[in-house]
Protein backbone atom coordinates (compact mmCIF):
# COMPACT_ATOMS: atom_id res chain seq x y z
CA UNK A 1 0.00 0.00 0.00
CA UNK A 2 1.30 3.47 -0.76
CA UNK A 3 1.69 5.80 2.20
CA UNK A 4 -1.22 8.02 1.38
CA UNK A 5 -2.08 10.92 3.66
CA UNK A 6 -5.26 10.50 5.64
CA UNK A 7 -8.03 12.64 4.32
CA UNK A 8 -10.79 13.93 6.54
CA UNK A 9 -13.17 14.21 3.57
CA UNK A 10 -14.48 10.73 4.25
CA UNK A 11 -15.88 12.05 7.52
CA UNK A 12 -17.71 14.78 5.61
CA UNK A 13 -19.27 12.56 3.01
CA UNK A 14 -22.75 13.78 3.80
CA UNK A 15 -21.88 17.39 3.08
CA UNK A 16 -20.41 16.41 -0.24
CA UNK A 17 -23.40 14.27 -1.04
CA UNK A 18 -25.71 17.28 -1.09
CA UNK A 19 -23.61 18.80 -3.81
CA UNK A 20 -23.61 15.85 -6.18
CA UNK A 21 -25.65 17.76 -8.73
CA UNK A 22 -23.46 20.86 -8.76
CA UNK A 23 -19.86 19.91 -8.83
CA UNK A 24 -18.44 23.42 -8.46
CA UNK A 25 -19.44 23.49 -4.83
CA UNK A 26 -19.07 19.77 -4.32
CA UNK A 27 -16.14 19.61 -1.89
CA UNK A 28 -16.66 20.39 1.77
CA UNK A 29 -14.38 23.01 3.27
CA UNK A 30 -11.76 21.12 5.22
CA UNK A 31 -11.41 18.56 2.55
CA UNK A 32 -7.80 18.76 1.42
CA UNK A 33 -4.68 20.79 2.02
CA UNK A 34 -4.83 22.05 -1.55
CA UNK A 35 -8.56 22.61 -1.71
CA UNK A 36 -8.58 25.60 -4.09
CA UNK A 37 -6.88 23.58 -6.83
CA UNK A 38 -9.28 20.69 -6.32
CA UNK A 39 -12.32 22.97 -6.41
CA UNK A 40 -11.09 24.57 -9.63
CA UNK A 41 -10.51 21.14 -11.06
CA UNK A 42 -13.99 19.95 -10.18
CA UNK A 43 -15.47 22.99 -11.86
CA UNK A 44 -13.34 22.40 -14.96
CA UNK A 45 -14.30 18.72 -15.27
CA UNK A 46 -17.98 19.49 -15.14
CA UNK A 47 -17.73 20.66 -18.75
CA UNK A 48 -15.88 17.58 -20.02
CA UNK A 49 -17.83 15.28 -22.32
CA UNK A 50 -16.09 12.17 -20.92
CA UNK A 51 -17.28 10.66 -17.63
CA UNK A 52 -14.88 11.80 -14.91
CA UNK A 53 -14.67 11.67 -11.15
CA UNK A 54 -12.37 13.33 -8.62
CA UNK A 55 -11.04 11.15 -5.81
CA UNK A 56 -9.14 11.93 -2.65
CA UNK A 57 -6.12 9.80 -1.74
CA UNK A 58 -8.31 7.68 0.54
CA UNK A 59 -10.38 6.37 -2.39
CA UNK A 60 -13.37 8.66 -1.61
CA UNK A 61 -15.24 10.08 -4.56
CA UNK A 62 -15.30 13.87 -4.13
CA UNK A 63 -17.15 14.79 -7.29
CA UNK A 64 -18.59 13.30 -10.44
CA UNK A 65 -19.29 15.28 -13.60
CA UNK A 66 -22.58 15.22 -15.46
CA UNK A 67 -21.27 12.78 -18.06
CA UNK A 68 -20.34 10.34 -15.29
CA UNK A 69 -23.67 10.67 -13.54
CA UNK A 70 -25.47 10.14 -16.82
CA UNK A 71 -23.52 7.03 -17.75
CA UNK A 72 -22.66 5.37 -14.45
CA UNK A 73 -24.83 7.01 -11.81
CA UNK A 74 -27.70 5.12 -10.24
CA UNK A 75 -30.94 7.11 -10.12
CA UNK A 76 -31.52 6.59 -6.41
CA UNK A 77 -28.00 6.77 -5.02
CA UNK A 78 -25.23 9.36 -5.08
CA UNK A 79 -21.65 8.21 -5.39
CA UNK A 80 -20.21 11.23 -3.61
CA UNK A 81 -18.39 10.28 -0.43
CA UNK A 82 -18.35 6.60 -1.37
CA UNK A 83 -15.24 4.53 -1.94
CA UNK A 84 -14.42 4.08 -5.61
CA UNK A 85 -13.78 0.34 -5.20
CA UNK A 86 -17.19 -0.11 -3.60
CA UNK A 87 -19.01 1.80 -6.33
CA UNK A 88 -17.19 0.30 -9.31
CA UNK A 89 -16.40 -3.21 -8.09
CA UNK A 90 -18.65 -3.83 -5.08
CA UNK A 91 -15.46 -4.65 -3.16
CA UNK A 92 -15.00 -3.95 0.54
CA UNK A 93 -11.26 -3.35 0.07
CA UNK A 94 -9.18 -1.48 -2.52
CA UNK A 95 -8.68 -3.30 -5.82
CA UNK A 96 -5.09 -4.37 -5.12
CA UNK A 97 -6.21 -6.09 -1.91
CA UNK A 98 -8.89 -7.90 -3.92
CA UNK A 99 -6.25 -9.29 -6.29
CA UNK A 100 -6.65 -6.67 -9.01
CA UNK A 101 -4.50 -3.89 -10.35
CA UNK A 102 -5.24 -0.63 -8.51
CA UNK A 103 -4.59 2.38 -10.76
CA UNK A 104 -4.58 4.73 -7.75
CA UNK A 105 -1.76 2.82 -6.13
CA UNK A 106 0.18 2.80 -9.39
CA UNK A 107 -0.44 6.50 -10.10
CA UNK A 108 0.69 7.29 -6.56
CA UNK A 109 3.94 5.36 -7.04
CA UNK A 110 4.58 6.80 -10.49
CA UNK A 111 3.46 10.30 -9.58
CA UNK A 112 1.97 10.08 -13.05
CA UNK A 113 -1.02 8.66 -14.93
CA UNK A 114 -1.93 4.99 -15.00
CA UNK A 115 -4.37 3.30 -17.34
CA UNK A 116 -6.09 -0.07 -17.01
CA UNK A 117 -9.04 -2.00 -18.38
CA UNK A 118 -11.40 -2.98 -15.56
CA UNK A 119 -14.77 -4.62 -15.31
CA UNK A 120 -17.06 -2.13 -13.55
CA UNK A 121 -20.50 -2.59 -12.12
CA UNK A 122 -22.83 -0.18 -13.83
CA UNK A 123 -26.60 0.28 -13.69
CA UNK A 124 -26.71 -1.90 -16.82
CA UNK A 125 -24.59 -4.70 -15.32
CA UNK A 126 -20.86 -5.44 -15.66
CA UNK A 127 -19.06 -3.52 -18.39
CA UNK A 128 -15.50 -3.22 -19.66
CA UNK A 129 -14.24 0.23 -18.79
CA UNK A 130 -10.97 1.81 -19.84
CA UNK A 131 -9.89 3.68 -16.71
CA UNK A 132 -7.22 6.38 -16.61
CA UNK A 133 -6.15 7.88 -13.31
CA UNK A 134 -4.12 11.07 -13.06
CA UNK A 135 -2.66 12.32 -9.79
CA UNK A 136 -3.03 16.00 -8.89
CA UNK A 137 0.02 17.31 -7.03
CA UNK A 138 0.44 20.33 -4.78
CA UNK A 139 3.50 22.58 -4.92
CA UNK A 140 5.41 20.15 -2.67
CA UNK A 141 4.74 17.36 -5.14
CA UNK A 142 2.36 15.66 -2.74
CA UNK A 143 -0.62 13.92 -4.31
CA UNK A 144 -3.74 15.74 -3.11
CA UNK A 145 -6.33 14.21 -5.40
CA UNK A 146 -6.83 12.07 -8.48
CA UNK A 147 -8.90 12.53 -11.60
CA UNK A 148 -10.35 9.35 -13.06
CA UNK A 149 -11.55 9.27 -16.64
CA UNK A 150 -13.76 6.35 -17.63
CA UNK A 151 -14.39 5.20 -21.18
CA UNK A 152 -16.84 2.37 -21.74
CA UNK A 153 -15.37 -0.20 -24.11
CA UNK A 154 -18.01 -0.91 -26.72
CA UNK A 155 -16.15 -3.53 -28.72
CA UNK A 156 -16.81 -6.30 -26.19
CA UNK A 157 -19.43 -7.25 -23.66
CA UNK A 158 -18.79 -8.40 -20.08
CA UNK A 159 -22.22 -10.02 -19.93
CA UNK A 160 -24.05 -12.37 -22.28
CA UNK A 161 -24.73 -10.72 -25.59
CA UNK A 162 -26.40 -11.74 -28.81
CA UNK A 163 -23.51 -10.36 -30.84
CA UNK A 164 -19.83 -9.42 -30.82
CA UNK A 165 -17.02 -10.32 -28.47
CA UNK A 166 -18.06 -11.63 -25.07
CA UNK A 167 -15.83 -12.32 -22.08
CA UNK A 168 -14.33 -11.11 -18.86
CA UNK A 169 -11.67 -13.70 -17.93
CA UNK A 170 -8.27 -12.12 -17.14
CA UNK A 171 -6.62 -13.35 -20.36
CA UNK A 172 -9.53 -12.16 -22.48
CA UNK A 173 -9.36 -8.76 -20.78
CA UNK A 174 -5.62 -8.56 -21.45
CA UNK A 175 -6.23 -9.09 -25.19
CA UNK A 176 -9.08 -6.57 -25.17
CA UNK A 177 -6.92 -4.05 -23.35
CA UNK A 178 -4.26 -4.44 -26.06
CA UNK A 179 -6.95 -3.79 -28.68
CA UNK A 180 -7.91 -0.56 -26.92
CA UNK A 181 -4.29 0.58 -26.86
CA UNK A 182 -3.44 -0.13 -30.46
CA UNK A 183 -6.73 0.65 -32.21
CA UNK A 184 -6.29 4.45 -32.49
CA UNK A 185 -2.83 4.09 -34.05
CA UNK A 186 -1.95 2.96 -37.58
CA UNK A 187 0.36 0.20 -36.32
CA UNK A 188 -0.11 -3.18 -38.01
CA UNK A 189 -1.62 -5.70 -35.59
CA UNK A 190 -0.89 -9.41 -35.58
CA UNK A 191 -3.43 -11.67 -33.89
CA UNK A 192 -2.02 -14.95 -32.65
CA UNK A 193 -4.28 -17.76 -31.54
CA UNK A 194 -5.56 -21.22 -32.15
CA UNK A 195 -8.33 -21.79 -34.64
CA UNK A 196 -11.70 -20.62 -33.36
CA UNK A 197 -10.35 -18.26 -30.68
CA UNK A 198 -12.08 -15.29 -32.28
CA UNK A 199 -9.32 -13.80 -34.43
CA UNK A 200 -11.77 -12.39 -36.94
CA UNK A 201 -13.95 -10.88 -34.22
CA UNK A 202 -10.91 -9.32 -32.58
CA UNK A 203 -9.75 -7.93 -35.94
CA UNK A 204 -13.19 -6.37 -36.35
CA UNK A 205 -12.92 -4.94 -32.83
CA UNK A 206 -9.62 -3.22 -33.71
CA UNK A 207 -11.26 -1.77 -36.81
CA UNK A 208 -14.33 -0.59 -34.94
CA UNK A 209 -12.31 1.05 -32.18
CA UNK A 210 -10.12 2.84 -34.73
CA UNK A 211 -10.56 6.08 -36.63
CA UNK A 212 -11.29 3.96 -39.71
CA UNK A 213 -14.46 2.46 -38.27
CA UNK A 214 -16.58 4.16 -40.94
CA UNK A 215 -14.41 2.72 -43.71
CA UNK A 216 -14.65 -0.84 -45.06
CA UNK A 217 -13.41 -3.91 -43.18
CA UNK A 218 -12.14 -6.37 -45.76
CA UNK A 219 -11.25 -9.96 -44.89
CA UNK A 220 -8.88 -12.02 -47.04
CA UNK A 221 -8.56 -15.68 -46.14
CA UNK A 222 -5.03 -16.43 -47.30
CA UNK A 223 -5.27 -20.18 -46.82
CA UNK A 224 -5.82 -22.18 -49.95
CA UNK A 225 -5.26 -19.25 -52.33
CA UNK A 226 -2.88 -20.02 -55.16
CA UNK A 227 -0.20 -17.48 -56.00
CA UNK A 228 -1.99 -16.12 -59.04
CA UNK A 229 -5.39 -16.05 -57.39
CA UNK A 230 -3.94 -14.29 -54.36
CA UNK A 231 -2.35 -11.63 -56.57
CA UNK A 232 -5.45 -10.93 -58.65
CA UNK A 233 -7.73 -10.97 -55.59
CA UNK A 234 -5.51 -8.55 -53.73
CA UNK A 235 -4.38 -6.19 -56.49
CA UNK A 236 -7.11 -6.63 -59.10
CA UNK A 237 -6.40 -6.88 -62.82
CA UNK A 238 -6.63 -5.00 -66.08
CA UNK A 239 -8.81 -6.12 -68.96
CA UNK A 240 -6.92 -8.70 -71.00
CA UNK A 241 -4.31 -9.35 -68.27
CA UNK A 242 -4.91 -13.09 -68.63
CA UNK A 243 -7.38 -15.43 -70.32
CA UNK A 244 -10.80 -14.73 -68.89
CA UNK A 245 -9.99 -11.20 -67.77
CA UNK A 246 -12.73 -9.66 -69.88
CA UNK A 247 -13.12 -6.53 -67.79
CA UNK A 248 -10.94 -4.54 -65.43
CA UNK A 249 -11.49 -5.64 -61.84
CA UNK A 250 -10.62 -3.82 -58.65
CA UNK A 251 -8.63 -5.77 -56.09
CA UNK A 252 -9.33 -5.87 -52.37
CA UNK A 253 -6.50 -3.43 -51.67
CA UNK A 254 -8.39 -0.93 -53.80
CA UNK A 255 -11.82 -1.67 -52.30
CA UNK A 256 -10.55 -1.33 -48.75
CA UNK A 257 -9.62 2.31 -49.38
CA UNK A 258 -9.79 4.19 -46.05
CA UNK A 259 -10.54 1.04 -44.07
CA UNK A 260 -8.90 -2.03 -42.57
CA UNK A 261 -7.48 -5.02 -44.45
CA UNK A 262 -7.54 -8.26 -42.45
CA UNK A 263 -5.26 -10.98 -43.82
CA UNK A 264 -6.36 -14.16 -42.06
CA UNK A 265 -3.91 -17.09 -41.97
CA UNK A 266 -1.01 -14.95 -43.15
CA UNK A 267 1.29 -17.95 -42.55
CA UNK A 268 -0.25 -19.59 -45.63
CA UNK A 269 0.84 -16.85 -48.06
CA UNK A 270 3.25 -18.37 -50.63
CA UNK A 271 6.84 -17.08 -50.45
CA UNK A 272 6.65 -15.47 -53.89
CA UNK A 273 3.60 -13.48 -52.82
CA UNK A 274 5.24 -12.45 -49.58
CA UNK A 275 7.62 -10.24 -51.58
CA UNK A 276 4.70 -8.46 -53.23
CA UNK A 277 2.98 -8.03 -49.93
CA UNK A 278 6.13 -6.55 -48.43
CA UNK A 279 6.41 -4.10 -51.32
CA UNK A 280 2.79 -3.08 -50.86
CA UNK A 281 3.29 -2.46 -47.14
CA UNK A 282 6.60 -0.65 -47.51
CA UNK A 283 5.73 1.59 -50.45
CA UNK A 284 2.00 1.92 -49.85
CA UNK A 285 1.55 1.45 -53.59
CA UNK A 286 0.54 -1.37 -55.92
CA UNK A 287 -0.25 -2.20 -59.53
CA UNK A 288 -3.15 -4.20 -60.88
CA UNK A 289 -2.13 -7.45 -62.61
CA UNK A 290 -1.32 -6.53 -66.20
CA UNK A 291 -1.38 -2.81 -65.36
CA UNK A 292 1.31 -0.15 -65.53
CA UNK A 293 -0.31 2.53 -63.40
CA UNK A 294 0.98 2.77 -59.82
CA UNK A 295 -1.90 3.17 -57.43
CA UNK A 296 -1.86 4.49 -53.88
CA UNK A 297 -3.08 2.16 -51.14
CA UNK A 298 -4.83 3.44 -48.03
CA UNK A 299 -5.52 0.78 -45.43
CA UNK A 300 -4.62 -0.34 -41.94
CA UNK A 301 -3.26 -3.89 -41.84
CA UNK A 302 -4.30 -6.62 -39.43
CA UNK A 303 -2.98 -10.14 -39.83
CA UNK A 304 -3.75 -13.37 -38.02
CA UNK A 305 -2.23 -16.79 -37.78
CA UNK A 306 -2.36 -19.94 -35.71
CA UNK A 307 1.08 -20.95 -37.01
CA UNK A 308 4.40 -20.35 -35.25
CA UNK A 309 5.54 -17.59 -37.62
CA UNK A 310 8.76 -16.92 -35.70
CA UNK A 311 9.76 -20.55 -36.18
CA UNK A 312 8.75 -20.40 -39.85
CA UNK A 313 11.11 -17.44 -40.28
CA UNK A 314 13.90 -19.58 -38.80
CA UNK A 315 13.05 -22.42 -41.22
CA UNK A 316 13.03 -20.03 -44.20
CA UNK A 317 9.30 -20.57 -44.80
CA UNK A 318 8.36 -17.00 -43.99
CA UNK A 319 10.27 -13.86 -44.95
CA UNK A 320 11.94 -12.20 -42.02
CA UNK A 321 11.55 -8.68 -43.43
CA UNK A 322 7.81 -9.18 -43.90
CA UNK A 323 7.53 -10.70 -40.44
CA UNK A 324 9.06 -7.63 -38.79
CA UNK A 325 6.80 -5.36 -40.83
CA UNK A 326 3.58 -7.04 -39.76
CA UNK A 327 4.41 -8.21 -36.24
CA UNK A 328 4.83 -4.76 -34.72
CA UNK A 329 1.96 -5.27 -32.28
CA UNK A 330 1.21 -8.92 -31.57
CA UNK A 331 -1.90 -9.78 -29.54
CA UNK A 332 -2.24 -13.31 -28.19
CA UNK A 333 -5.79 -14.60 -27.99
CA UNK A 334 -6.29 -17.17 -25.23
CA UNK A 335 -7.64 -20.60 -26.07
CA UNK A 336 -11.01 -21.32 -24.48
CA UNK A 337 -9.49 -23.75 -21.95
CA UNK A 338 -7.54 -20.81 -20.48
CA UNK A 339 -10.68 -18.74 -20.02
CA UNK A 340 -13.12 -21.41 -18.93
CA UNK A 341 -14.69 -19.02 -16.40
CA UNK A 342 -16.19 -17.29 -19.47
CA UNK A 343 -17.93 -20.46 -20.65
CA UNK A 344 -21.30 -19.90 -18.90
CA UNK A 345 -21.49 -16.39 -20.37
CA UNK A 346 -20.48 -17.60 -23.82
CA UNK A 347 -22.97 -20.45 -23.67
CA UNK A 348 -25.73 -18.01 -22.79
CA UNK A 349 -24.63 -15.73 -25.64
CA UNK A 350 -24.55 -18.50 -28.24
CA UNK A 351 -27.92 -19.83 -27.14
CA UNK A 352 -29.38 -16.32 -27.49
CA UNK A 353 -27.73 -15.81 -30.85
CA UNK A 354 -28.97 -18.89 -32.48
CA UNK A 355 -32.35 -18.89 -30.83
CA UNK A 356 -35.23 -19.20 -33.20
CA UNK A 357 -37.41 -20.84 -30.55
CA UNK A 358 -39.93 -18.94 -28.54
CA UNK A 359 -38.54 -20.51 -25.40
CA UNK A 360 -34.91 -19.87 -24.53
CA UNK A 361 -32.77 -23.00 -24.13
CA UNK A 362 -30.69 -23.19 -20.94
CA UNK A 363 -27.94 -25.50 -19.73
CA UNK A 364 -28.21 -27.67 -16.64
CA UNK A 365 -25.51 -27.06 -14.03
CA UNK A 366 -24.11 -30.58 -14.43
CA UNK A 367 -23.78 -30.11 -18.19
CA UNK A 368 -22.18 -26.72 -17.62
CA UNK A 369 -19.54 -28.30 -15.42
CA UNK A 370 -18.70 -30.72 -18.19
CA UNK A 371 -18.50 -27.91 -20.72
CA UNK A 372 -16.14 -26.04 -18.39
CA UNK A 373 -13.93 -29.05 -17.83
CA UNK A 374 -13.50 -29.95 -21.50
CA UNK A 375 -10.32 -28.74 -23.25
CA UNK A 376 -12.00 -27.35 -26.43
CA UNK A 377 -9.31 -27.90 -29.08
CA UNK A 378 -11.65 -26.18 -31.57
CA UNK A 379 -12.26 -23.33 -29.13
CA UNK A 380 -15.35 -21.12 -29.47
CA UNK A 381 -16.32 -22.51 -32.84
CA UNK A 382 -16.41 -26.00 -31.35
CA UNK A 383 -18.44 -24.78 -28.37
CA UNK A 384 -20.94 -23.19 -30.69
CA UNK A 385 -21.26 -26.38 -32.75
CA UNK A 386 -21.69 -28.55 -29.65
CA UNK A 387 -24.50 -26.27 -28.43
CA UNK A 388 -26.16 -26.24 -31.85
CA UNK A 389 -26.25 -30.01 -31.76
CA UNK A 390 -27.25 -30.34 -28.09
CA UNK A 391 -30.22 -27.99 -28.37
CA UNK A 392 -31.80 -30.34 -30.91
CA UNK A 393 -32.01 -32.99 -28.18
CA UNK A 394 -33.20 -30.68 -25.44
CA UNK A 395 -36.93 -31.36 -25.68
CA UNK A 396 -37.69 -29.53 -22.43
CA UNK A 397 -35.33 -26.66 -23.41
CA UNK A 398 -32.68 -27.73 -20.89
CA UNK A 399 -29.40 -29.07 -22.21
CA UNK A 400 -28.27 -31.93 -19.95
CA UNK A 401 -25.07 -34.05 -19.95
CA UNK A 402 -26.73 -36.76 -22.03
CA UNK A 403 -27.26 -34.20 -24.81
CA UNK A 404 -23.54 -33.51 -25.06
CA UNK A 405 -21.22 -35.58 -27.27
CA UNK A 406 -19.52 -38.53 -25.53
CA UNK A 407 -16.06 -37.02 -25.87
CA UNK A 408 -17.11 -34.18 -23.57
CA UNK A 409 -18.56 -36.47 -20.90
CA UNK A 410 -15.49 -38.73 -21.05
CA UNK A 411 -13.15 -35.82 -20.45
CA UNK A 412 -12.28 -37.02 -16.96
CA UNK A 413 -15.09 -35.24 -15.14
CA UNK A 414 -17.11 -37.47 -12.89
CA UNK A 415 -20.50 -37.89 -14.52
CA UNK A 416 -23.50 -37.57 -12.24
CA UNK A 417 -26.99 -38.13 -13.61
CA UNK A 418 -28.59 -34.76 -14.18
CA UNK A 419 -31.74 -35.61 -12.26
CA UNK A 420 -29.81 -35.87 -8.98
CA UNK A 421 -28.15 -32.51 -9.38
CA UNK A 422 -29.26 -29.04 -8.43
CA UNK A 423 -29.30 -26.26 -11.04
CA UNK A 424 -26.31 -24.58 -9.40
CA UNK A 425 -22.67 -25.69 -9.40
CA UNK A 426 -22.30 -28.84 -7.33
CA UNK A 427 -19.88 -29.53 -4.53
CA UNK A 428 -17.24 -31.75 -6.03
CA UNK A 429 -15.37 -32.33 -2.78
CA UNK A 430 -14.31 -35.77 -3.92
CA UNK A 431 -14.12 -34.83 -7.54
CA UNK A 432 -11.21 -34.40 -9.79
CA UNK A 433 -8.11 -33.41 -7.82
CA UNK A 434 -6.00 -33.65 -10.93
CA UNK A 435 -8.16 -31.02 -12.64
CA UNK A 436 -7.92 -28.75 -9.61
CA UNK A 437 -4.18 -29.25 -9.45
CA UNK A 438 -3.85 -28.46 -13.16
CA UNK A 439 -5.97 -25.31 -13.03
CA UNK A 440 -4.46 -24.04 -9.79
CA UNK A 441 -0.90 -24.46 -11.11
CA UNK A 442 -1.93 -22.88 -14.39
CA UNK A 443 -2.63 -19.59 -12.64
CA UNK A 444 -5.13 -18.58 -15.29
CA UNK A 445 -8.11 -18.46 -12.94
CA UNK A 446 -8.38 -16.37 -9.82
CA UNK A 447 -9.14 -18.13 -6.54
CA UNK A 448 -12.69 -16.90 -6.75
CA UNK A 449 -13.11 -18.28 -10.28
CA UNK A 450 -11.62 -21.59 -9.22
CA UNK A 451 -14.06 -21.78 -6.34
CA UNK A 452 -17.05 -21.10 -8.61
CA UNK A 453 -15.75 -23.58 -11.12
CA UNK A 454 -15.58 -26.33 -8.50
CA UNK A 455 -18.72 -25.29 -6.67
CA UNK A 456 -16.77 -24.57 -3.48
CA UNK A 457 -16.59 -21.68 -1.08
CA UNK A 458 -13.27 -19.87 -1.24
CA UNK A 459 -12.43 -21.14 2.22
CA UNK A 460 -13.13 -24.78 1.26
CA UNK A 461 -11.16 -24.29 -1.91
CA UNK A 462 -8.26 -23.01 0.16
CA UNK A 463 -8.44 -26.11 2.40
CA UNK A 464 -8.46 -28.41 -0.61
CA UNK A 465 -5.54 -26.61 -2.20
CA UNK A 466 -3.70 -26.87 1.09
CA UNK A 467 -4.34 -30.60 1.29
CA UNK A 468 -2.91 -30.87 -2.22
CA UNK A 469 0.12 -28.84 -1.18
CA UNK A 470 -0.90 -25.97 -3.47
CA UNK A 471 -2.04 -23.27 -1.08
N1 LIG B 1 -15.09 -13.73 -27.42
C1 LIG B 1 -16.08 -14.18 -28.20
N2 LIG B 1 -17.34 -13.93 -27.86
C2 LIG B 1 -18.35 -14.40 -28.57
N3 LIG B 1 -18.21 -15.14 -29.68
C3 LIG B 1 -16.99 -15.41 -30.09
C4 LIG B 1 -15.85 -14.94 -29.38
N4 LIG B 1 -14.75 -15.37 -30.02
C5 LIG B 1 -15.17 -16.07 -31.08
N5 LIG B 1 -16.52 -16.12 -31.13
C6 LIG B 1 -17.33 -16.85 -32.12
O1 LIG B 1 -16.63 -18.07 -32.34
C7 LIG B 1 -16.61 -18.40 -33.71
C8 LIG B 1 -15.17 -18.46 -34.21
O2 LIG B 1 -14.63 -17.14 -34.20
P1 LIG B 1 -13.64 -16.61 -35.34
O3 LIG B 1 -14.09 -17.06 -36.70
O4 LIG B 1 -13.46 -15.15 -35.15
O5 LIG B 1 -12.34 -17.42 -34.93
P2 LIG B 1 -10.93 -17.49 -35.69
O6 LIG B 1 -9.89 -17.53 -34.63
O7 LIG B 1 -10.86 -16.39 -36.71
O8 LIG B 1 -11.01 -18.89 -36.39
P3 LIG B 1 -10.06 -19.42 -37.59
O9 LIG B 1 -8.65 -19.31 -37.11
O10 LIG B 1 -10.49 -20.84 -37.73
O11 LIG B 1 -10.36 -18.56 -38.77
C9 LIG B 1 -17.45 -17.36 -34.41
O12 LIG B 1 -18.77 -17.86 -34.49
C10 LIG B 1 -17.39 -16.17 -33.49
O13 LIG B 1 -18.55 -15.39 -33.60
TrEMBL record:
Family matches, as Pfam families: AAA_lid_14, PAS_4, Sigma54_activat
Top-level taxon of origin: Bacteria
UniProt-annotated stretches for the region Disordered: 1-31
Keyword ATP-binding on entry: yes
Location of the Sigma-54 factor interaction domain: 165-392
Keyword Transcription on entry: yes
Keywords: ATP-binding, Nucleotide-binding, Transcription, Transcription regulation
InterPro entries for this protein: AAA+_ATPase (IPR003593), AAA_lid_NorR (IPR058031), P-loop_NTPase (IPR027417), PAS (IPR000014), PAS-like_dom_sf (IPR035965), PAS_4 (IPR013656), Sigma_54_int (IPR002078), Sigma_54_int_dom_ATP-bd_1 (IPR025662)
PANTHER family, per database record: TRANSCRIPTIONAL REGULATORY PROTEIN
Name this polypeptide is given: Sigma 54-interacting transcriptional regulator
Amino acid sequence: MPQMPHNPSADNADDADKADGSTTAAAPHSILPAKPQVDALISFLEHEAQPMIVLDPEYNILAANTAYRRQFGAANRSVIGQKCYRVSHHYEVPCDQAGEHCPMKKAFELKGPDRILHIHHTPRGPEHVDVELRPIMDTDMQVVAYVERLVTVRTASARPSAEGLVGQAPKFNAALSAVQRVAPSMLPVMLLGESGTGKELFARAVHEASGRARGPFVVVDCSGLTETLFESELFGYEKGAFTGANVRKKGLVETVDGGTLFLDEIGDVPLAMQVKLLRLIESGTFRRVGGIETLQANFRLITATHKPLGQMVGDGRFRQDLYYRIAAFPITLPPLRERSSDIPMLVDSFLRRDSTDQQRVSVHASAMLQLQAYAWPGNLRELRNVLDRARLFADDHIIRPEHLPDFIASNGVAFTPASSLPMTPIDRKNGDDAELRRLASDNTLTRRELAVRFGLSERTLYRRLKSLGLA
